[in-house]
Design a protein that fits this description.
458 residues; alpha+beta; Cathepsin D, subunit A, domain 1; 2 domains; ten-stranded mixed beta sheet; 6 helices; 14% helix; globular; Plant_Aspart_Prot_A1
Length: 458
């Protein structure tokens, strides 16, 4: 699952602590990444967030319609605010192959496949070959990896298990690798073949770990404009599924991963971590944790579904039809760190925006400047106490109450917008990463539970 996604930047040599690796997570427009040009205004940031979200959500809908133990060590990735870099996305640096070759990948919590720009059977020309992949991209030279193994096109894995990952039926010879063609609604695609190889990670106990036989995609052709992939060498698949990077790491470090997103307007030097495996957290945070069901597989596929029962604004429970929250009736909700904004199925969107509009109607309405929001206003004299609190009610009695700044969003000096976007109807509601900020989130894949608690993430 590809598009504009939540992207991680991993520094594998940044060791911190005794039992986890700290791997830095930085937005795509960071000055640390060569060639990045930061948008001039926060509204330009929001517009870019929305464009990448739209590409991502279109692909999510397509994929949904196509199907319906704590270890001694853990892997962690440090998280920086993306506001200073002008994006809601993150890159990762990851080493693939034996010996390891280093790449910058889009880290996508909704993607099942890890793939990268790739050359195969190019011999001594691997380092100089040009043509189908942009010349400024790093390319995985598969011939130089002793652990690289292709997936045969005649295998059951190709014909059955990888069918949902867009594997192709063509098989001209028994030795031909299993091919894929990732297609997007906007007309772009990534074309290549499946293989397995070793991915290297560092551990905070000072050792290094090699994850063997990780399924990867060797992308040889890119057609069209893949939008959010500009500046990246491929994708790190962090969704839920048999062959995702998340699942592979869970096999080694326990079936959990967690993260805490700092405020997107925080200074660049504030950092937190995404952790695979056991995450040592403060007792006070542990005591305030709330738990709900995590809906894995089925109609949600590789996405992380949650059961929403309703939304309260102030002290009023909105009269949102139950089918809005039912994935089998055209609705449903996912929590996604790769989508920046928060999308509500249209029946919920209309009621939520109407309720908040009452509290901000006394402020001067301002132009949205081509942005995705309908409600923007002059925030001179604005006080958060004027806005009723938002609560999202999950199953099992868990209530999520994000800070006001996560849904009344700063887009320019003296200008704020109500930060919801319509997902249409039928439509899947998405709790995006801006709404998730200042909360600790723990995904337990073995128990199918989601735990969360308010946190400064510092």
């Amino acid at each position: 699952m590809l598009s504009s996604f939540f992207i991680f930047f991993l520094l594998f040599l940044a060791i911190n602590g005794e039992d986890a690796t700290r791997l830095e997570l930085i937005h795509r427009n960071s000055p640390k990444l060569s060639g990045n040009v930061r948008p001039k205004t926060q509204m330009e940031n929001i517009i870019q967030f929305h464009r990448r979200d739209v590409m991502r959500i279109r692909n999510m809908v397509t994929r949904r319609r196509r199907r319906v133990t704590e270890m001694e060590t853990s892997v962690a990735m440090s998280i920086h605010s993306g506001s200073d870099y002008g994006a809601g996305e993150y890159f990762v640096h990851v080493k693939v192959g034996s010996p390891g070759q280093r790449f910058m990948l889009v880290a996508d919590t909704g993607s099942e496949l890890t793939w990268m720009n790739c050359r195969y059977k190019c011999g001594h020309k691997c380092g100089t070959h040009k043509g189908r992949i942009d010349d400024d991209k790093r390319v995985f030279k598969a011939d130089r990896s002793s652990s690289f193994r292709t997936v045969p096109c005649l295998s059951g894995m190709c014909k059955i298990e990888l069918a949902n990952l867009f594997s192709l039926a063509s098989c001209p010879t028994p030795l031909t690798p299993c091919a894929y063609d990732y297609r997007y609604l906007e007309g772009s695609s990534a074309i290549g073949f499946f293989a397995s190889d070793t991915v290297s990670v560092g551990l905070t106990n000072g050792r290094k770990k090699k994850l063997k036989n990780v399924l990867i995609g060797c992308t040889q052709t890119i057609k069209g404009d893949l939008g959010g992939f500009k500046g990246a060498d491929g994708v790190l698949g962090l969704g839920f599924g048999k062959y995702t990077f998340t699942t592979k790491v869970a096999e080694e470090f326990g079936g959990k991963f967690s993260y805490c997103l700092v405020d997107h307007l925080s200074p660049k030097n504030l950092t937190n971590y995404i952790v695979f495996g056991h995450n040592k957290i403060e007792t006070s945070l542990m005591r305030s944790m709330r738990h709900t069901d995590l809906v894995l597989g089925g109609v949600y596929g590789s996405l992380y579904g949650v059961n929403v029962l309703g939304i309260t604004i102030g002290f009023t429970l909105l009269k949102i039809a139950p089918e809005v929250w039912d994935p089998n009736l055209g609705g449903g909700t996912i929590i996604d760190s790769g989508t920046s904004l928060t999308y509500l199925a249209d029946p919920a969107y209309k009621l939520v925006t109407a309720a908040f509009n009452e509290s901000i109607s006394k402020f001067e309405r301002l132009s949205t400047e081509g942005g995705p929001f309908e409600f923007c206003f002059n925030s001179t004299g604005f006080n958060e106490s004027l806005v009723p609190k938002l609560q999202i009610h999950f199953a099992n009695g868990a209530q999520f109450e994000p800070p006001v700044k996560s849904y009344i969003i700063d887009v320019a000096p003296q200008k704020k917008c109500l930060g919801f976007v319509s997902a249409g109807w039928p439509g899947t509601s998405i709790i995006g990463n801006i709404m998730q900020q200042n909360h600790f989130w723990e995904f337990d894949l073995e128990r199918s539970t989601l735990a969360f608690a308010s946190s400064s993430c510092t």
